[in-house]
Amino acid sequence: MPVPEVREGLTMKTPSFIHGQTLAHEALAAEAEAGLLAAAASVSPKFLYDPLGSRLFDAITELDEYYVTRTEAAIFAAEGDAIVDAALSGCGPAPVLVDLGAGNCAKAARLFAALRPRRYVAVDISVDFLREALEQLQQRHPALDLVGVGQDFSVQLALPAGIAGPGSLVFYPGSSIGNFTPEGALRLLRQARALAAPGGSLVIGADLVKDVQVLERAYDDALGVTAAFNLNLLRRLNGLLGADFDLAEWRHVARFDTPHSRIEMHLEARRPLTVRWAGGTRERAFAAGERIHTENSCKWSRPAFAALLADAGWTDVRCFTDARAWFGVFVARA
Known about the structure:
The protein is an alpha/beta fold and 334 residues long. It has two domains: 38-59 and 224-297, no CATH class; 67-210 and 299-333, 3-Layer(aba) Sandwich (Rossmann fold), CATH 3.40.50.150. The protein is 36% helix and 24% strand. The protein contains ten helices and 13 strands. An eight-stranded mixed beta sheet has the order 1-4-3-2-5-6-13-12, with helices on both faces. Helix 2 (51-60) packs antiparallel against helix 9 (225-241). The radius of gyration is 20 Å and the shape is globular.
């Protein structure tokens, strides 16, 4: 879909930035510490997305093994008009476009020409990265009302009053809905419907079940970019907690868990070691081979994901997929 040209002499707006329901440093540190001290250590995947982590994820999307981004892009290239028509039939013309996990905003920006939103609301946990992305986006779309919301919507999706509302189009591309447990995904989808209803629409991506080797290569690439993305979480924890993780003592592990239909990412200790933080007053010993669980990525069948949307209150669910049925773009009405 073409990007609208910037007309000379057009007055350029300035993006607005709102810090929504983000956790304070102390609360984030407490959450991370609780995960490290749990019987089976785990850290929420939201800690992966500091500015460096966000850039590393952008690099992952360019990898040969990471089929998700290019497969979803191919679906939009082939079915984009039908997807847009289905979305606008629910929310109406010139909607407020709410982009969850906006990142660099590139996926939503490709739809501006077709959707012609009256406002673009980009929601992301990585505030500094989002600010930079919106400032660049405003250069290309000077007349569009751009709003950035720094929010951890894994806790709760609740936008400030007046930013969006009934008739909004919620956009959640990629496969990030898979990072949630099925219960967490249901909760988020219900909150998204509450934001958009009545009269709103949803366009969401979901990664579909496929060959295990294809899945595992996508999360453990030959160049080691995904490993760097995962290991950067330890660097983040060092800064957040004052911890002494030595990244060289850990390795990236990604495996498909068939019973739960999900990729699991872990960081595995290469030898017995002890990690300390809070000035050495807190610590956790790890045996060789012991892991920190850092991310899940659930894979869905088309009927199962459609049923999840219906359980969340969305109606008129449609699925657009590629020829191999590797990925689904789902459109629904609030």
